[in-house]
Design a protein that fits this description.
Blueprint lengths: L3 E7 L12 E7 L7 E10 L3 H5 L19 E9 L9 E5 L5 E5 L4 E2 L16 H14 L6 E5 L4 H12 L3 E6 L2 H10 L4 E4 L6 H8 L4 E5 L4 H8 L2 E9 L18 H6 L3 E4 L9 H13 L7 E5 L4 H7 L8 E5 L8
Parallel strand pairs: 8-9, 8-11, 9-10, 11-12, 12-13, 14-15
Antiparallel strand pairs: 1-2, 3-4, 3-6, 3-15, 4-5, 5-7
Helix pairs in contact: 2-3, 2-8
This protein binds NADPH dihydro-nicotinamide-adenine-dinucleotide phosphate.
The site of NADPH dihydro-nicotinamide-adenine-dinucleotide phosphate has 32 residues, from helix 2, helix 3 and helix 6.
Length: 341
Amino acid sequence: MTKANQQIILASRPKGMPTDENFRMIEQPVPQANEGEVLIRTLYLSVDPYMRGRMNDRKSYIPPFQINEVVTGGVVGEVIESNDPDFKEGDIVLGTLGWQKYSVAKGKHVRKINTDIAPITTSLGVLGMPGLTAYFGLLDIGQPKAGETVVVSGAAGAVGMVVGQIAKIKGCRVVGIAGSGEKNKYLVDDLGFDAAINYKTTSNLKTALAEACPNGVDIYFDNVGGSISDAVMSLLNNKARIPLCGQIALYNLEKVDTGPRIQSQLLVTSSLMKGYIVSDYSDRFGEGISQLAEWVSEGRLKYKENIVEGLENTVNAFLGLFTGENLGKQLVKVADPSLSK
Ligand code: NDP
């Protein structure tokens, strides 16, 4: 049987908010696995906000996507052919592969997933890159102490909901900021956040935050930037910490956005703001995954995934990150495993 490899390529660089026209679905022959390589059938793929930055032709911590090339990102897949003795058909693996049905990778570039610990989707979410981003940003930079107040923006997304729950495990008061009533209800009722604010409907975010944080803000976990972050800055306590994780509110701006200058605020409160990329902590990923997995198995860390079906719906799922369609980690299901037990 001849199988075709459907792939989504970057057709043009987005200006502002990406559209369907920036992407194209094409078909190629299924690639061959050579010596030391495995052929992987995509089961789930991850769409992530950072991918928007890679669509610009700009120097960053990771090279830009190239026009007419497959969009690459996190994939959980099934080995369907192996020319690497460390892998066998049916193994479930995690890798930075792509928006396509089949990929070939060197065995050393993918990691086998232990399917007994949790559903395989979690290796792209709570037990994967987003969970690790939350874990290291909050614990290493945020240094939460019991009784402190933690504010997290983008609170109902993949990173944000893990941040809030770890902060609760550490005994903090947790206030989330997210863009819908349904999301905020979930944060408070299901995840135990102390309060959650809908930044889209509140008439004055600063006042709402001041009410929700009567003792000020000790940690602001910044996932979004822009005017939401401006509103938090005036509430910083002395020696506040700001893990600077993401700036999604700015990713689609076509002109540089100048907000209030916050350096004085950081100065007079002796606060620490620190940017980081999760890969800064790659030598500690094992520690992070095992702690996150322990909390998940104890029921102290819940996770939610927003799964759409079909490779053809990948672009819409990606665009939805910028309009807040997702509650929890956004994934695309491409296929069911066919070989694994
Ligand atoms: P999410 O699952 O949180 O999805 C993105 C969410 O951002 C949307 O659901 C939406 O929720 C919110 N959002 C979109 N546009 C805006 C806007 N203009 N203003 C405010 N909120 C907005 O994504 P992730 O959890 O994967 O990522 C969260 C952040 O962390 C991103 O900024 C990402 O780039 C960053 N990140 C950084 C990493 C690092 O290594 N530093 C690694 C991984 C992620 P809502 O309905 O609330 O608006």
